[in-house]
Amino acid sequence: MKKDLTRGNVPGHLIRLAVPTMAGFMAQTLYDLVDMAWIGRISSEAVAGVTIFTTVFWIVEVLNEIIGNSSVSLISQSYGAGNRERTEQAIEQTLTFKALVALLAAALLFMFIKPLMAFFTEDRLVLKMALDYGYLRIFFLPFMFSSFTVNTALRCTGDVRTPMIIMIISSILNIVLDPFFMFETIPGTSIPGLNMGIFGASLATVISTTAAFLGGFIFLFSSGGGVKPKLKGLLKLRWDIDYKLLTIGLPIGLETFSRQFSLFLIMKFAALYGTASLAAFGIGNRLYGFIFLPLIGLFMGGSTVVGQNLGADRVDRAVSASKWSALFSTIMMIFFMAVAQIFPSSIMSFFISDSDVIGTGVEMIRLISISFIPMGSTFGLAIAFSGSGHNMPFLLSGIVSKWVVQLPFLLAGWFIFHWPVSTIWISFILADVVSAFFIAGAYGRGKWKEIRV
């Protein structure tokens, strides 16, 4: 059901949009955690290989971020302004344009994947695991991008229930297929599996992602209420819209590239400390994602509230939404930090039995979880930028926090002071604190209130 978010209770709208979105993302990240636990049953080399590939793979996420965040502003503001035709055109163009961009990204990644992998390690087994897992994921990149677009289109017009259902079903499918594809016998049972190893984990992921896209696509284009994009609209590019899809979200895309490339280099520092540190870093990435994606759920739901209200020139309601979002996200992060501080050993043991990896990981969890609170406040306020289309603060905060603070700190720690691996975990705290102050300052200046796309 489509919802007009320009009237009614603001925090109520925020919760109604954010909770189903968060539930969908929590289901997805639960799969990520279970997936890493299954991979940990193969070997620490398998964990390290998937860690390397995942970091490299998400560098191309910059393209999805650019177009996806542009589409949030375009679709939600068009819908808030009551322009149904423009809303449908924005959805159609986002689907087509992003699919074409994903094809280009997949081709480039196929060409450069081997040298990118070799940058991190010379361990042939780790490299084999990374490539066995990665090639299929690259091939199905357009389906991954397109599934994001379908869910975004539904959320921006107020339908958060359907994307939640799609993501939950997709995650359950993934969790069920994983052990069946990976092992000769499903662990804990006598049920025979296909024994595909690390390739089976990749196959389970692409099957569930493709199923999610197809189900969402059919629903979106057969919906009888609200907006109804047309199949023929997918066959023609409209430069007036495509230009905005490239430019509105460009600062967020560049920030994503900056963040992912910095993560690329930070992972190299982890590799310098050995395979155990690299494996712990990979598990930490999945845990960080488990914390991060619920924030993204709140961010996406809140951006829709801001976008619709700015489209209707209800600035006061957009301000209210961003403040409530900051409060909700901060409370949520306090809870996650408490869990991480109390149960770090149990969390690591869920993924792997290697005592060296567990020891490194416990210290990592305790330190990195301190950054959860500033990260929560950052994403809570940032819905104002995404909903309005004023995304430059994202780029500037990413450059300052990662390239001016975090990476120089790591360089000094390794080359000058010879600090231990904990230097990596402390660097994340510093980066998130700086980012939080930067975003709060940009929000307070209020330029986002004047932006319309």
TrEMBL record:
<dbReference type="GO" id="GO:0005886">
    <property type="term" value="C:plasma membrane"/>
</dbReference>
<keyword id="KW-0813">Transport</keyword>
<feature type="transmembrane region" description="Helical">
    <location>
        <begin position="364"/>
        <end position="387"/>
    </location>
</feature>
<feature type="transmembrane region" description="Helical">
    <location>
        <begin position="423"/>
        <end position="443"/>
    </location>
</feature>
<feature type="transmembrane region" description="Helical">
    <location>
        <begin position="198"/>
        <end position="221"/>
    </location>
</feature>
<feature type="transmembrane region" description="Helical">
    <location>
        <begin position="287"/>
        <end position="306"/>
    </location>
</feature>
<keyword id="KW-0472">Membrane</keyword>
<feature type="transmembrane region" description="Helical">
    <location>
        <begin position="95"/>
        <end position="113"/>
    </location>
</feature>
<keyword id="KW-0812">Transmembrane</keyword>
<protein>
    <submittedName>
        <fullName>Putative MATE family efflux protein</fullName>
    </submittedName>
</protein>
<dbReference type="Pfam" id="PF01554">
    <property type="entry name" value="MatE"/>
</dbReference>
<feature type="transmembrane region" description="Helical">
    <location>
        <begin position="133"/>
        <end position="154"/>
    </location>
</feature>
<dbReference type="InterPro" id="IPR002528">
    <property type="entry name" value="MATE_fam"/>
</dbReference>
<feature type="transmembrane region" description="Helical">
    <location>
        <begin position="261"/>
        <end position="281"/>
    </location>
</feature>
<feature type="transmembrane region" description="Helical">
    <location>
        <begin position="327"/>
        <end position="352"/>
    </location>
</feature>
<keyword id="KW-1003">Cell membrane</keyword>
<dbReference type="InterPro" id="IPR052031">
    <property type="entry name" value="Membrane_Transporter-Flippase"/>
</dbReference>
<feature type="transmembrane region" description="Helical">
    <location>
        <begin position="166"/>
        <end position="186"/>
    </location>
</feature>
<dbReference type="InterPro" id="IPR048279">
    <property type="entry name" value="MdtK-like"/>
</dbReference>
<dbReference type="GO" id="GO:0042910">
    <property type="term" value="F:xenobiotic transmembrane transporter activity"/>
</dbReference>
<feature type="transmembrane region" description="Helical">
    <location>
        <begin position="394"/>
        <end position="417"/>
    </location>
</feature>
<keyword id="KW-1133">Transmembrane helix</keyword>
<dbReference type="GO" id="GO:0015297">
    <property type="term" value="F:antiporter activity"/>
</dbReference>
